[in-house]
Amino acid sequence: MQDNKEYINVIGAGLAGSEAAKLLASFGIKVRLYEMKPVRKSEAHHKDSYAELVCSNSFRAASIENAIGLLKEELRRMGSLIMEAADATEVPAGGALAVDRDEFSSYITEKIDNDPNITVIHEEIHTIPDDAITIVATGPLTDGDLYDDILRVAGGSDLHFFDAAAPIVSKDSIDMTKAFAASRYGKGGDDYINCPMNKDEYLAFYNALIVAEQADVKGFDKEIVFEGCMPIETMAKRGEDTMRFGPLKPVGLIDPRTGKEPYACLQLRQDNRAKSMYNLVGFQTRLKFGEQKRVFGMIPGLENAEYLRMGVMHRNTYLKSPEVLNSDYSLRNNPNIFFAGQITGVEGYIESTGSGFLAAFYAAHRFWNKEPEMRFDGETVIGSMAQYVSDPNVKKFVPMNANFGIIDPMGIKFRGKTAKKDKCKALADRSLTKIEAYRSYIDGLKEID
């Protein structure tokens, strides 16, 4: 078992699997990439292409003084395929990095399909292959026989939460006599469409939302939701003003009709390069489709909105990783099997990408039967994520986004009004200095035949 030195298996061509396959191929390692599309699609997938973005088209903050922005820069500097694709298909999004989701997926699909070291096998896998080292990157919607086999092989119990996607509307259907184009504080240009609400409009919307009829979701007996992707109706039920401190926050936006900051404001983000599609930022939902149109139509500017994609909710599964994974994403009871992506408990597009990159990095060394001369540690965001999901001291394990709270501290105290900014800058500088060394090492590995 797994003594095969001809290739490495990668199961799943999502963000993590595509990243892993491409990095392995760049090392000269033959890859068998198993992807069940188009033979079968999950409930959240619609396209045949790889690395399909099923939720938002945003990769979140771009600044390296934000942990997710720093993670993107770490990956970018190390030659990440996902970051290459994101930069090539970027659309305006203020201080965030967002992409044209179709162009993004097509870019990655072309790169994977045209790589001579990658053989894509379009079939559904029911058990983890035992013919070679394998990276399992099947995502949080893994189900059926493979799900059962993963639990058997990992030797741990599963966990789950519910995730949701926001609706997308046609730009032409937005009433721009009520909405206006602007970014918060003018940062990045007029990249968002804003739908302002006065107090009466907001309260009418709020009261309709909290009693709106919700769609049945299989297994949704308790509202186990990821805080970073909470359904808007769940958020509303936490209090009348909760949305006004979240996705409907009006701060930094001035309604040109009044010259004042609105009571509440919904932002819509460009979803494709043609500027024909916009998604409702923060409006993940499990409302029934008819209710989405009715209730969201109460927001000024969306009265006659044409919905190109309705909001949906689905169950996500992840491993109890601190009990079963090493910090290189391999199984503790079988170091020839690696996991990557959201199934490990990292939460987010770029976090999944980072796990795929590291799983491939370490799987390659396993393939060569050599110890890495360098290991990613907690002084980088990519390394800190791996340490968090494998830390046995984490007793209450939940999906985790990249953040500076899990990165190794600097060991010094920052003081004054700019203390937080100074700390973030210092963490970023330290990380990118280490990334340069990692990049040199990785570039050297690419010379191995």
Describe the structure.
This protein is α+β, with helices and mostly antiparallel strands and 449 residues long. It has two domains: 8-157 and 320-445, FAD/NAD(P)-binding domain; 165-312, Beta Barrel (Elongation Factor Tu (Ef-tu), domain 3). It has twelve helices and 17 strands. It has helices at residues 15-26, 67-77, 81-88, 101-113, 144-154, 199-209, 232-236, 289-296, 321-324, 349-368, 381-389, 419-445; strands at 8-11, 31-34, 58-61, 90-91, 96-99, 118-121, 134-136, 158-165, 168-170, 180-182, 192-197, 264-270, 277-280, 307-309, 312-319, 330-331, 334-339. The protein has a six-stranded mixed sheet with strand order 6-2-1-7-17-16, with helices on one face. A hairpin with a 2-residue loop joins strand 16 (330-331) and strand 17 (334-339). Helix 2 (67-77) runs parallel beside helix 10, helix 2 (67-77) packs parallel to helix 12 and helix 3 (81-88) packs across helix 4 (101-113). The radius of gyration is 22 Å and the shape is globular. The protein starts with 7 loop residues before the first strand and ends with a helix. The model has no long low-confidence stretch (mean pLDDT 89).
